[in-house]
Specification:
Elements lengths: L1 H43 E2 L8 H5 L12 E2 L9 E7 L2 E6 L22 E3 L11 E5 L12 H4 L9 E5 L4 E14 L12 H14 L14 E7 L7 E14 L23
Parallel strand pairs: 4-5, 6-9
Antiparallel strand pairs: 1-2, 3-4, 3-7, 5-6, 7-8, 8-10, 9-10
Length: 277
């Protein structure tokens, strides 16, 4: 009997050691990620009525004046990084990166240091100014609720009908997206299509997305629409199941001066003062 107990005890100890060797590094990665993004928000994201007394900001040459009640993004803090936008949806706020492929920022922070949690990032083939008909942003479904970890238990509810999120761009504009569809799908499905033969094909795509949606929003298909999808895993690590929140741009306005390092890409700044859907 004592031999059996000894064997069971040894097996349990080994199991615990293995679990600890797997889990502890991830917990350290989670903590590092959380601290990194906390610092980014503290340094670079300000509410309109927030004073900024930092000498660094005063000497950066950036004009932090906001033209409405929008957030003020100190884009100078992101100079030299692969940032293309700031995403804000309720208390979820992150810089959006864009790499040369869709692998690098899966496990790298904005400063390009390795971290399991990685970054929120735009599809590598998408236009950095979100002028495409459909752009896809990816983020991890983190166990601690960070990144897109709140999506599954927060936004699958029909009570989120016509919810919105914002993308702030380095050109000083704020783009508001109203929920178009919320879809449970799998990786590689046609939900992720971003290239369309013509406007008719894009319109047909939108109709299909509305049909697939877990609940209906008041936004309607429009051949000239700009859609942005927020994609994350919908299940345990390694699953092919995905949760995709699609938003349709319903407003675009200038809210602050462009970043000093931003350069017009000849497409111009997309601004539409109308908030209509």
């Amino acid at each position: 009997m004592w031999i059996t107990r000894l064997i069971v005890g040894a097996a349990s100890a080994i199991t615990l050691a293995i679990c600890a060797s797997v889990l502890l590094p991830k917990l350290f990665e989670y903590a590092e990620s959380a601290e990194t993004y906390r610092q980014i928000i503290e340094d670079a994201v300000h509410k309109p009525d927030e004073p900024d007394n930092s000498a660094a900001s005063a000497s950066s040459g950036s004009d932090r004046k906001s033209y409405d009640n929008s957030l003020i993004i100190d884009w100078e803090k992101f100079k030299g990084q692969d940032v293309v936008a700031w995403l804000q949806m309720d208390d979820i706020g992150y810089p959006v990166m864009q790499g040369e492929d869709n692998s690098f920022y899966l496990h790298h922070l904005p400063d390009k240091s390795w971290n399991y949690g990685g970054s929120i990032f735009l599809n590598a083939d998408s236009s950095a100014d979100f002028s495409d008909s459909h752009s896809v942003i990816y983020g991890h479904n983190m166990a601690d609720g960070s990144m897109f970890g709140k999506f599954r238990w927060r936004y699958m509810d029909p009570g989120c009908k016509d919810h919105t999120f914002d993308l702030y761009l380095p050109d000083g504009t704020r783009h508001t997206y109203t929920f178009f569809s919320v879809i449970s799908t799998t990786g590689g499905s046609d939900v992720y299509d971003t290239k369309f033969a013509d406007k008719k094909a894009f319109f047909s795509y939108q109709k299909k997305m509305k049909e697939l949606s877990l609940y209906q929003n008041s936004t309607e298909p429009d051949q000239d629409a700009h859609l942005v999808s927020l994609s994350t895993c919908n299940g345990v690590e390694g699953t092919r199941n995905r949760l995709v929140i699609q938003g349709k741009e319903t407003a675009a306005r200038q809210t602050q001066e462009p970043a000093s390092w931003w350069r017009d890409n000849s497409k111009g700044i997309r601004v539409n003062e109308s908030d209509g859907i």
